[in-house]
Design brief:
By secondary structure, the chain is α/β, with parallel strands linked by helices. Helices cover about 25% and strands about 30% of the residues. The longest helix has 28 residues. The structure holds alpha-L-arabinofuranose (AHR). Alpha-L-arabinofuranose binds next to loops. The site of alpha-L-arabinofuranose has 10 residues, from loops.
Length: about 500
């Protein structure tokens, strides 16, 4: 029997809904086909956005969407994606499959998508191959209400009112695909470019995000902050972190999404747990400059990255999604909650048809992946307050390099006072009986949902409901104590009323 301790009286921080954010890049079939099919498509759509996908995304309350990349962001020239579609420039998407990008999905379409989803907007600007003027004019085009060349252009293109840009990324992976820069050089560019990301709407200032590190490149974090920090708060609101879960840790042979064994299972989950170490490591450096934690850590790319599905375009990064991915999502979402004092947004890569997607499409068919179900269960934490909690764990797995703690958890209290517990059981063989104690409380009721199945269980276009959540009723409560058994290989959500 493992003990779970929850103290609802000790609040540890606000869980921004944005911790469950998403990312959509002009990559493979994410935007085109996956989200945007055009108004003339036979696939039901509203202003070109496929209805089935938008409805499925609304069910998980996507809080924020990042666009247009990714590596694509640093070669994207926004002016090519506005105005009459027939005269928009065509370009080659050199990063992703060398396909023709016809720019039919641009700024207006992105804003329309966010409006349909009811989510916040996160635009990633181009530092790698774009000018300061180009970035500055994009912000003017999107957010200026008065009379100016860019505001007039927006109006001429059919949008009288400015949009709200909630988040703006000043470059992406500028240590790599975004220009192969050194941190000091990027830091100086950040200072310059962000100057022209003007706050035209002073009541709604744009949250500016600097390009942060790749995985454990602590030197990058330190040097970018050293170069930029003398300007203090307002100059930089967030700094990104990118970390992908790769089963083998080897970019040349990452492993497959469906064809894997128990060893791969445990080493993948072990790799996912590394997110904790990275948040702490980068967080410790941020603390040196910003002890009050005013600058948010923005984990704007995370998720599993496997070798592409056999027979698919290697540049499209299409992969299937199993219970293993749902557990990776559960681990990460619990970790983001636990670190909500520093982590202010996280964006899974990517929303549809790319990497750890929540949705897969094929023609007019659509499936919700096990990762979608993880988000569905965890959405209860959005806008809650993290409360103090811990759980006893034992090591699960096979041998030295393939062992993980069996359980992860996080607990929050919602505005209506209900307590939400999310747990993962990473062990493939053993369920775990748990006794949960709630300090100074009497439990009135508990209900829950569970997601479980074979480690390779996944949803297909032929069998879209193979993996799905079920009601979890096997929980008893008395006084301040509840008892339940979390199945092997599962995610659990409990809603507790005290
Ligand atoms: O998500 C796929 C790619 O991974 C992004 O374009 C890039 O930022 C990262 O390397």
């Amino acid at each position: 029997m493992a003990k779970l301790y929850v103290n609802p009286n000790v609040k540890k921080g606000h869980i921004n809904p944005e911790l469950q954010g998403h990312f959509s890049e002009h990559l493979g079939r994410c935007i085109y086909e996956g989200i945007f099919v055009g108004e003339n498509s036979h696939i039901p759509n509203v202003k070109g956005m496929r209805t089935d996908v938008v409805e499925a995304l609304k069910e998980i309350h996507v809080p924020v969407l990042r666009w247009p990349g990714g590596c694509f962001a640093d070669e994207y020239h926004w002016q090519e994606g506005i105005g009459p579609k027939e005269s928009r420039k065509k370009m080659i998407n050199t990063h992703w499959g060398g396909v023709v990008e016809d720019n039919s999905f641009g700024t207006h379409e992105f804003m329309e998508l966010c409006e349909q989803l009811g989510c916040k907007t996160y635009i990633n600007g181009n530092v790698g191959s774009g000018t300061v003027q180009e970035m500055s004019e994009w912000v003017e085009y999107m957010t200026f209400k008065g009379v100016s060349p860019m505001a007039e252009l927006r109006k001429a293109n059919g949008h009288e009112e400015p949009w709200k840009v909630d988040y703006f990324g000043v470059g992406n992976e500028n240590w790599g695909c975004g220009g192969n820069m050194r941190p000091e050089y990027y830091g100086d560019l950040y200072r310059r470019y962000q100057t022209y990301v003007r706050n035209y709407d002073s009541k709604n200032p744009i949250f500016k995000i600097a390009c942060g590190a790749n995985v454990d490149d602590y030197h990058w974090t330190d040097k970018v902050l050293e170069t930029t920090f003398d300007h203090g708060w307002g100059f930089m609101n967030g700094m990104s972190l990118h970390y992908y879960t790769i089963p083998t840790g080897n970019w040349n042979k990452k492993g497959l999404a469906l064809d894997f064994d128990e060893k791969d299972w445990y080493r993948t989950l072990k790799a996912a747990l590394k997110m904790d170490e990275l948040i702490k490591g980068h967080g410790a450096i941020m603390d040196q400059y910003d002890p009050e934690k005013k600058i948010g850590m923005i984990v704007d790319e995370w998720g599993t990255w496997y070798d592409v599905e056999p027979g698919t375009n290697p540049g499209f990064l299409y992969q299937q999604n199993t219970m293993r991915d749902a557990l990776v999502a559960g681990i990460n979402l619990n970790l983001f909650n636990k670190h909500c004092d520093r982590v202010k947004m996280a964006n899974i890569a990517q929303m549809v048809n790319v990497l750890q997607a929540v949705i897969l499409t094929e023609g007019e068919k659509m499936v919700k992946t096990p990762t979608w179900h993880a988000f569905y269960m965890y959405q209860n934490h959005q806008d809650g307050e993290l409360v103090e909690s811990c759980v006893e764990t034992v090591q699960a797995g096979l041998e030295k390099d393939y062992m993980v703690p069996n359980l992860t958890e996080s607990v929050s209290v919602a505005k209506d006072g209900r307590i939400h517990v999310t747990m993962t059981n990473l062990c493939l063989t053993d369920s775990q009986e748990i006794q949960g104690y709630f300090a100074d409380s009497t439990i009135k009721s508990v209900k829950g949902t569970v997601l479980t199945g074979d480690m390779r269980a996944h949803n297909t276009f032929e069998n879209p409901n193979a993996v799905h959540t079920e009601d979890f009723t096997a929980v008893t409560a008395e006084g301040n104590r509840m008892t339940f058994t979390i199945p092997a290989c599962s995610l659990l959500h409990l809603e507790v009323e005290i």
